[in-house]
Amino acid sequence: MMGVPISCTELAAGAFFKWNVTLPRFGDVRRSSSIPCRNPNALHKTIDSLYIMLQLKPLDEAVPIFRQINESLSPVVLVNIFNVAEADVPALLAAWEVDANWMKKQTGYISTQLHRGIAGSTVFMNYAIWESVAPFRAAFNHLDFQSALSQYPESAVASPHLFTRCSVPNLCVGP
Q1: pTM for the structure as a whole
Q2: Among 27, 127, 113, which residue's Cα sits nearest to residue 81?
Q3: Better pLDDT: 104 or 47
Q4: Hey, is 169 helix, strand or coil?
Q5: C-alpha span between 144 and 99 (Å, rounded)
């Protein structure tokens, strides 16, 4: 099963099995999950759907999103660059729409906008404004959001990054 390490323990004869699965999620970040299941054969589909996640590539290798979400700034803007194969554009848009509608209901969410590169580009840019890092972190780490990432097409690669406004005299007003 794609090299996902799995260990299984039967909790009681004929009862639940406890599966410990180490899933390679979001690059090098690994999380273990215990999933109770009466039928261990049926669990393989669940594990496969958890394993097949949206690929993430840091926009800034030195400061990836997983480091940024531990900060406490407000407000913040999420910029997420998506690269996807032309054939997968409709699937990307459908998955993004579901995510955006879910995020829209989260505390601290302000707004979002999706853009597509011109001249036939298959690069998309989303920016979303959040009141602060804390509510974004809660939404980003929420199981519902992470589970939905499996709906993105296999060719999709996302590069999320958090930003804050800068102050430049006579041009920009920062925090």
Answers
A1: 0.71
A2: 127
A3: 104
A4: coil
A5: 9
Residues 6+ apart with CB under 8 A from 129: 75, 76, 77, 78, 110, 111, 112
Report pLDDT digits (tens) over 93-141.
999 999 999 999 999 999 999 999 999 999 999 999 999 999 999 999 9
User: Which amino acid, residue 37?
Assistant: C
Tell which residue, 112, 123, 31, has the closest CA to residue 79.
Answer: 112
Q: What's the CA gap between 87 and 104, in Å, rounded? A: 27
**pLDDT one-digit tens code per residue, 35-44:** 445 555 544 4
Cα distances (Å, whole numbers) of residue 144 to 13, 14, 71, 173: 31, 30, 23, 36
3-class DSSP assignment, residue 128:
strand
The SS3 assignment for 97 reads: helix
Nearest to 142 by CA among 113, 114, 106, 111: 106
